[in-house]
Amino acid sequence: MRTFDYLRAEDTATAIVEAAKPETRFLAGGTTLLDLMKLNVERPAHLVDITRLSGLDVIGVSADVIRIGALAKMSKVADHADIKDAAPALSESLWRAASAQLRNMASIGGNLMQRTRCTYFRDPGAYPNCNKRNPGSGCAALEGVNRNHAVLGTSDACIAIYPGDFAVSLVAFDATVLVQGSVERRIPVDDFYLLPGQTPHIEHALAPGEIIVGIEIPRVAALKRSHYLKVRDRASYEFAAASAAVGIELEDNGKTIRDVRIAVGGVATKPWRLRTVEDSLKGKPLDEATLRTAAAAAVDGAKSSGHNAFKIELTPKVVARALMTVGDIA
Ligand SMILES: Cc1cc2nc3c(=O)[nH]c(=O)nc-3n(C[C@H](O)[C@H](O)[C@H](O)COP(=O)(O)OP(=O)(O)OC[C@H]3O[C@@H](n4cnc5c(N)ncnc54)[C@H](O)[C@@H]3O)c2cc1C
Ligand code: SF4
After folding, report:
1. Spacing, Cα 1 to ligand 1 middle (Å)
2. Is 80 helix (H, G, I), strand (E, B) or coil?
3. What radius of gyration do the chain's Cα atoms show?
4. Contacts (Cβ under 8 Å, ≥6 apart) of 235
5. Which ligand does the CA of 142 lie closest to?
6. What's the 74 CA to ligand 1 centre distance in angstroms?
7. For strand 211-218 and strand 5-8, is the pairing parallel, antiparallel, or unpaired?
8. Ramachandran angles phi, psi of 289, nearest 5°
9. 94 alpha carbon to ligand 2 midpoint, in Å?
10. Which of 45, 120, 234, 293 has its CA 20 to 30 A from that of 184?
């Protein structure tokens, strides 16, 4: 590990000024960053500790909107009574992420900024070929063991999945990422994450010196009847093989779908909204056949790299099951 400077920022303005310096990273819970520094993947020259910034851990649920501060702990948000009631998918996606110890330490801002778990990306000593870590060097996963890699949103430069759970539920419900830098910005979460294309090392829309201060989620009716279904190789402490964040609003005495929200995780290079599937379900009867037919289109455009072909079969099933659960027909 190389040496680095450490500064504990006392206010957000200082943190922003410091973070504009090259090779600087914010330190929140440290559960991703410190791991990656030990692995020699992240090599910052300056660390700006943001854990003491005041006011960034506030959680607020009003009639129209849910606001979550970037320094709120994953466990606090998952266990927040009003969020559990108003937005089950948000709470569930956090409960099913990581372990109790990690959730107690990790922040919401850091959770959004976590990096891929691609094993080649995380092992620079053994695998120099990684376009995300070392632009232009190639991709060891394309011809390697790629069971955990993406089938949607890939490019010939990178097939790594976005690994997080919470951002999948945020994308399903049109959340906004609140950012401060030289100006304040509001970035729709769907635009916050970038496709790999030929620049997989550029993963998000945050500029140097910008800090995530919070997230806003509008309280649409489908959020109240929502669910996060995560399928993984073991029951806990494991990333998703495939997941779905869904929400549904019914009309006609519960027989017809008025509004529906769907995003999938564990299968794409960014949290993946399924707008075409949503459109095909609006105004349709709520029954198993309709849901399964629509869910089949969840993997339109998917591309297998070999070992991950099972995700193309699995994903529609996860989407259909999650929708049946919120429709009370599972
Ligand atoms: C063993 C293990 C299992 C896990 N399993 C899961 C899982 O199943 N699902 C899941 O979703 N996640 C999982 N995670 C990831 C975990 O949720 C993240 O490590 C955690 O949320 C990161 O938060 P942190 O506060 O510790 O971030 P840090 O490690 O402090 O920071 C992470 C990154 O975010 C940046 N950052 C932090 N805060 C801000 C901010 N406010 N603005 C801008 N940049 C910021 C940092 O500079 C750094 O680059 C797992 C992690 C581990 C180690
Ligand atoms: S899939 Fe992406 S992160 Fe993994 S080795 Fe290839 S370029 Fe690197």
Report:
1. 20
2. coil
3. 20
4. none
5. 2
6. 10
7. unpaired
8. -65, -45
9. 26
10. 45
Residues 204, 171: contact at Cβ < 8 Å? no
Answering whether pTM is above 0.70, one says yes
Q: Taking residues 46-53, report their average pLDDT.
A: 97
* pLDDT tens column, 159-213: 999 999 999 999 999 999 999 999 999 999 999 999 999 999 999 999 999 999 9
In the DSSP assignment, the letter for residue 161 is P
Question: pLDDT averaged over the chain?
Answer: 97
Q: Which has the closest alpha carbon to 47: 13, 10, 3, 12?
A: 3
What is the Cα–Cα distance from 231 to 124, expressed in whole angstroms?
29
**Is residue 243 within 6 Å of ligand 1 at its C-beta?**
no
**What is the C-alpha to C-alpha distance for residues 198 and 189, in angstroms, rounded to an integer?**
21
130 lines ligand 2 (CB under 6 A): yes
* Atom in ligand 2 nearest the alpha carbon of residue 130: 8
Task: Pull the structure tokens for residue 242.
Answer: 């495939």
Is residue 1's pLDDT more than 70? Answer: no
The mean pLDDT of 80-97, rounded to a whole number, is: 98
